[in-house]
Every structure is written in C-alpha cells, then in structure tokens.
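Section 3.1: Structural characterization of target chains.
Under the original work plan, the team committed to producing a structural model for every single-chain target entering the pipeline before any wet-lab resources were allocated. The record below documents one such target. The sequence was received from the expression subgroup and is listed exactly as submitted; it comprises 152 residues.
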Amino acid sequence: MAELDVGGVKVKGGKGLGLLMAAATLIGALYGGFEVYKDYTDMKEKLSNLDIGAIEAKNAVLETKLEEAIDYVQDIKDDLRSDVIQVEKALGNVEQRIRLVEGENRTSIQEAKKWFDERTSKVDEKLNALEERLNKRLRDALQNPLLKDMSK
C-alpha cells in the first residue's frame, strides 16, 4: 500500500486519497467563492456608476413619445372612420341616384315604346287604306278597261 508523508504525518491508502480529494474540493470552493465575490464587486461598481436620473429622463421621454404615438394613431383611426362613413354615405347616394335614373329610363322606354307603337299602328292603318284603294282601282281597271280610258 502507498504511503503519503505530508509535514511529518504519514497517511496510508484510502485515507490519503480522501484527504487529497477534500483538499482539492476546498481549493475549488475557495476559488469559486473568489470568482463570485469578484463578479459581485464588479457589478456593485457598475451599479454605483449608473445614473438613475438619466435613465428616468430617457424613460420619461420614451413615455411622452409613446403617448404622442398613441394619440396620433387614435387620430388616424378616427379620420379613417369618418372617411369610411363619408364613402358609405356617398355610395348610398350613388345607389339611390342609380335606382332613380333606372326608373326614369324604364318610364322613358315605356313611353317611347307606346309612342312608336301608336305611330306604327297609324302607319299600318294608312298603308292598309292605301292598299285597299289601290286594289279597288286595280279591280276596277281590270274589270272595265274602257272606263279608264274615258276618265282621262
């Protein structure tokens, strides 16, 4: 078995290994504690150099800008709402005018159709009367050709 001699004390076997591990753990813990303390002092120094007034001023400026932006967005929203309402009203007026014009057009077309029907029926009547007179003259002429020569 191996013996370890440290400062006049002889340690054998597993005890020596256990003491060696305990010493290494103690040294590691002390080093870790030192690093934590060093980080703590560095952070403390940074925090002591921090200007809280400047941060609060920047926050106040940001809050003011944010409130202005919110007001601006609200104004845009209100303007858009009023524009949409105006467009809807204009669209309603256009639709109403279209319905009115369609009604006027239907009435005009019906009146024009009635007028043309009356005119065409009068023309048809006159053509029928003319046709009847021509047919009568042709019949008379064909039945008595001598009378026609005398009427001249």
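The mean pLDDT is 88.
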